[in-house]
Amino acid sequence: MMSQPWTLAEPSHFSSAEQILFAVLAILSLALFWRRFSPILRRILASKKDADFHLAPVGKRIRDFVWEVALQGKVIRQRPLPGLAHAFVFWAFCAFAVVTLNHCAALYGAGFLDPHSPVGIAYFYFAAIFALACAAGIFGLFIRRFVIRPKWLEPFSPESGVIAGLIFLLMVTYLAAFFVQPDGVAGRALWWVHALTLLAFLPIIPHTKHLHLVLSPFTVFLSRGGFSKIPPLQGDEDFGLVAGKDLTQLASLQAYSCVECGRCTEHCPANNTGKLLNPKQVILGVRAYLNEYGPQSEEALLGKHNSQKAIFECTTCGACEFQCPVGIEHLPIVIGMRRGAVNTGEWEDEHGAKLFLALERGSNALGISATERDKFIAKNALPFYDGTQEYLLWLGCMGAYDPKGREIVLSLVRVMRYLNVSFGVLRKEKCSGDPVRRLGNDLVFQQLAEANLEALAQANTRKIISICPHCVRTIQEDWKEFGTPPPVEHHSEFLARYASQLPSVPNQEKIVYHDPCYLGRYRDVYDEPRAVVAHAGQLVEAERHRERSFCCGAGGGLVFLGEETGERVSHARARELTATGADVVGAACPFCNTMFQDALAAQGPNAPRLLDIAQLAARGLPETEAGSVK
Amino acid sequence: MKIIVAIKQVPERDAPIRIAASGKWIEEADLQFAMNEPDAYALEEALQLKEKHGGEVIVVSAGPERVATTIREALAKGADRALHVVCDDLADRDALGVANLLAAAIRPENPDLVLTGLQSEDVGLGQTGVILAELLGLPHSTLILQVEKTDGGIKVKRELEAGWFQTIEMPTPAVLTIQSGGNKLRYATLMGIKKARSKELRTLNAADLAASARAVVTLEQISLPKKQKSTQILPGTGKEAATALVEKLKFEVRVL
Asked: What are the pLDDT digits (tens) for A1-46?
């Protein structure tokens, strides 16, 4: 029978020998796949249960799944060109599911899509469009991986080349079938090459990064939810991620889902400034651990496959977790390993021990006498909160003890007084526990959270406002483990609401706003501080901003840990901010502020000045005598 | 090596101090308490000796109920067991009275070494350790920064004035009073706290110890220090002034 031109050639008859041969090869392929995949599945399932996991709310899970998996939203948005190339490969795979089923069914005379029927023609053409896009996409990805070779795609991965070749071959053999006779040698050969490529593809999946094809839809759907969600410790034997026995099913699933795209490493401030930490290798380290020791092992996690030094270089900026397209939550793993090292006393660090001792005995992370806070409050006539005022003004360690932090607090106080918004401060306030939480000291964190929760409850606190995104996050999310914190907001949210009521600033300087990690990625607050900045001057953006903002280097307790190796993260960021040509850097976090003071000074005489958004908001206010800082 | 560390619970450094109506002690009602810092260094030295040479570290503390929290902290940091001499009249006793209590608790243990901080952060007499040695009939050495075990006994490094040190060899058993700063203190861990729960904490009643409370020194009155500010200009070139400043920060203000 002559085929009509431009229809898909599908051999109309297959011999019994062909049918048997394919059946044997298909069984072999499936068996090989299972042989390699089942140990991985067993390791994931044999891991510790996630005690705090809840499937609800399912609606959000479905939305995330549709956006991240089906629509490839994250993949494309964060890396548009390679993202689109990947999306076409993915969508082609989805479109090809039907084609492939039909391809195999046709062998046994059970084909359900007739290449000559209108439905068949329509579908095969539909798939052909995706095949073209996929072939182009995979070719582009191949060029990128093997010719352009960005550093985050290291190490060199020959299997990726093989896989790319197989995918390319699948598409080419499909497309070529539109140009040949169905029962000619070419038609039959194309059918077989396509079928054999499929069968060869299957067993390669489980031991390469292409396992993400199978696992990542589950990983995305089953994520812990929230950002940097740190699970509560369970019982008396749980000290965090000490050994394999502490890895949960989600952690193991995530470790095996890694697609090695390196987006995490590309955006990691530690890795970009010459430090040992490589978030991709952290996850692959967990995978290698599971492969070698298994999920119930007593062997320490920090050892052969992950280094303690690297783990403690993390600023917990969360760029990795935010970027990950396959739903890996890096922070619970990094902080989990820190918990394991700190809660058992394995981590020995002079600065770390000093911080912990300061917070075991004293009230603040800076190790300063609490009477200094009392003096600051008295000097500036800050009222104490008694339950009647609208806001409890949380000072935080920086706001209460650090000279720059105090200036920020006093600027906010000026604005609140101008707006007639009532506020008061706590008589006794301890560190929110952010640095010890991120460094993994559960003992001190619990003591601080409980003491503060009690003090806030005794003061009948209704609403908290704070200049520190770290305090805001820790109070709102991390304290939940020990009680019910009052609602809390960052001063940018407050100031944005009232910006229109503040006197305008005549001098329209160029102000570059730096997104603090704990306000942006952690809290999803991007527009409010920009509204405040726009009120005070002309807003300009740094190259990396909003979700992709680059850390100042202070987070994760690192501001207390002494000198960094490699380049200082703050200097790398200060260079970027200076390059915008702005007159002022607008900050919204006292830790960013303290890091940039030094880092901007190092940029030379033309470096922009540094102001918090509270100071920007207070710029147009009439001068008062209450502006002095002590 | 069997090491006993005598520790004292004192008001937290940050605590706002108010003089009690009697004028002889402070108002304790709203205070937070913590381990006396030189005692924390004595404990650290003991723990390090145990880690090197094996043995047992026993903490002993005299004071009311609340002292138990500080004892638990010492157990959490690694001490093996503890003795709590329960007494409510600690502030009324002089150094001899306190040393009498400690000696009575320590004597039956027959330790190789007794360590304690060189002074307390509250009354700061610096006497208790020395009197304790006398009561136990043991040799002692004060202001110790380092302890090393030797074949016949120990070798200790003492701090003298103006950056000078002295090294002494002495026999054991002995009593040493430890100066702050000789080691790096370890932080408390969750695992340590959990382990501490199952460690032995024996309470001894002060009344049962036949330890005399008769005071030879009586405390007449306490007062808050007078606030005074003094400014000092450091002369010389920038470099000289900076060197002088570092000296002062190190040895006078002791913040470096």
From this structure: 444 567 888 888 899 999 999 999 999 999 999 999 999 999 999 9
Q: Which of A237, A343, A349 to mutate to test the interface with B (most CBs of B within 10 A)?
A: A343
- Chain B residue with minimal CA distance to A359? B187
Residues of A in contact with B184 (CB under 8 A): 350, 353
Closest CA in chain B for residue A367: B14
Instruction: Provide the pLDDT for residue A155.
Output: 79
Q: Find the domain containing A321 and state its range.
A: 244-343
A209 and A273 in a single domain? The answer is no
Q: What is the dotted CATH code of the domain comprising B2-225?
A: 3.40.50.620
Residues present in chain A in total: 630
Pairing assessment for the beta strands B165-171 and B153-159 based on DSSP bridges: antiparallel
Any idea which of A289-298, A605-614, B218-227, B237-246 has the lowest mean pLDDT? Answer: B218-227
Window 6-25 of B: residues touching A by CB (8 A cutoff) are 12-14, 16
* pLDDT tens digits along A489-545: 999 999 999 999 999 887 789 999 999 999 999 999 999 999 999 999 999 999 999
pLDDT digits (tens, 9 = 90+) for A191-237: 999 999 999 999 999 988 899 999 999 999 999 988 999 999 999 99
Q: Classify residue B219 as exposed, middle or buried by CB count within 10 Å of its CB (0-12, 13-18, 19+).
A: middle
**Residue of chain A minimizing CA distance to B189:** A343
What DSSP assignment string belongs to A143-202? HIIIII--GGGPSP-HHHHHHHHHHHHHHHHHHHTTSS-TTSHHHHHHHHHHHHHHHHHH
Q: What is the CATH number of the domain that holds A368?
A: 3.40.50
Task: Identify whether A228 is part of a domain.
Answer: no
| pLDDT tens for each residue of A235-272 | 999 999 999 999 999 999 999 999 989 999 999 999 99
Q: Is B164 on the interface with A (CB under 8 A)?
A: no
Phi-psi region at A172: left, alpha or beta (left = phi > 0; alpha = psi -120 to 50): alpha
Residues of chain B with CATH 3.40.50.620: 2-225
User: Which positions in chain B touch A428 (Cβ < 8 Å)?
Assistant: none
Judge whether B192 is closer than 8 Å to chain A, CB to CB: yes
- Which of A370, A374, A443 shows the shortest C-beta gap to B189? A443
Residue found under tokens 């959270």: A449
The three-class DSSP label of residue B132 is helix
Q: Which residue has tokens 């040695």?
A: B133
Residues A313 and A285: beta-carbon distance below 8 Å: no
Encoded tokens for A431: 């560190």
The interface predicted TM-score of the complex, written ipTM, equals 0.88
Question: Is pLDDT at A625 greater than 60 in this prediction?
Answer: no
Nearest C-alpha of chain A: how many angstroms from B249?
Answer: 16
| Same domain, yes or no: A89 and A167 | yes
Candidates B187, B193, B255: best to mutate against A (most CBs of A within 10 A) is B187
CB within 8 Å: A343 and B12: no
**Residues of A at the B interface (Cβ-Cβ below 8 Å)?**
233, 236, 239, 342-345, 350, 352-353, 356-357, 360-363, 369-371, 374, 441-444
